[in-house]
Here is the input.
Amino acid sequence: MTDARGYTADLDAKSAQLERLKAELQKDVESHKAALQEDVESYKDSLRLRTDFKVASFNATIGFAQAAIRGLVLINGGAAVALLTFLTRVWAPDDQASIQAARIANEALFWFVLGTASAVSCAGISYVAQTVFSRSVQKTDRWVGIPLQITGILLAVISLVAFYFGCMRAVGALGMP
Here is the structure.
């Protein structure tokens, strides 16, 4: 039989060991907690960098699109103004060649105006599409934005094609081969 003192001493030793183990466990928990906090901060930094890159890329994409649309408006509108300026310089109401050139230039002017209207419409549609994308919460909202985006691209292509046809008709109006 064990006496009470031996039992108490054994209990005290086990209690001290338990306290040591508890302190070590607490130390390990704090160590792991600190390591996890470092991992969380590292992940936040990585996520912030990726987000910043995506935002910068997105802004660059919008900037390029704006420059392209402005270019389409500029070339078509500028061509229409240049053609009208040229016609006012060479116009003679009683000259048959001037009248024929004006008729052909009228066709060219139609294409340049169509190109300008398409480019301006492209800018408007692009704005609406971007508004839909920026306000959409769910991916299902994209069914509105994507067709608008495609329409904007088609309008830009129409504007470029109209500029080409306008140039071809303007060359004809000037009597060039």
Observations:
- The mean pLDDT is 87.
